[in-house]
Amino acid sequence: MESTSFLSAFVLLLLVTDPFGSLPIFVSQMRNVAPQRRSIVVIREITVAFCVLFAFMLFGRQFLQVMHLSETSLGIAGGVILFLIALRMVFPAPHGNGADHPADEPFVVPLAIPLIAGPSALATVLLLVSREPARLWEWVAALALTMVVCALTLAFAEKISHWLGERVTTAFERLMGLVLTAIAVQMLLDGIREYISSLV
């Protein structure tokens, strides 16, 4: 299997966390938060998401061993999950994202989990570390950089959404979904290739 570069890991993590595609949810969740509290909420939610994903990086291999899962099965499962996420990005539900306007400020759910540290992000960090555990801190750096982008997007979600407009935001999400689809298919092909090689 080909080695993953730092840049490709960062792009992959950015795609699966999908901060730009989640702009409408960010706006709705932050609308009722007092302006002086918003920076605190952003830092808290990003910190929680980073800690959850970092924990999966540290204990991912142990998790695989306990569950008796192979790296090949994880790669195929990760590809399937990413493919499903990509399909939802390219073909979203007709009734929007279903996010309500909360009466109170968000706490962990839904911003940190599952919007940022969702199943696809957890599977991705687990897959990165299981493939190349010696490069753990490189993956941590890619994750940290991704969290910085998510934090900036969350902090300026309302301004970004207003500046880009709904059509541009939607088009950007479709484009990211297309790229993620290609990544998912490649992961599936790599996993199938490894499985076939193990049988020969």
Automatic annotation (TrEMBL):
Belongs to the UPF0056 (MarC) family. It is found in: Cell membrane. The chain crosses the membrane at residues 40-60, 72-91, 111-129, 136-155, 175-192. It holds the Pfam family MarC. The lineage of its organism: Bacteria, Pseudomonadati, Pseudomonadota, Betaproteobacteria, Neisseriales. This is UPF0056 membrane protein. NCBIfam families: NAAT family transporter. Keywords: Cell membrane, Membrane, Transmembrane, Transmembrane helix. PANTHER family: UPF0056 INNER MEMBRANE PROTEIN YHGN, UPF0056 MEMBRANE PROTEIN YHCE. It is a multi-pass membrane protein. It comes from the Bacteria. It comes from Chitiniphilus shinanonensis.
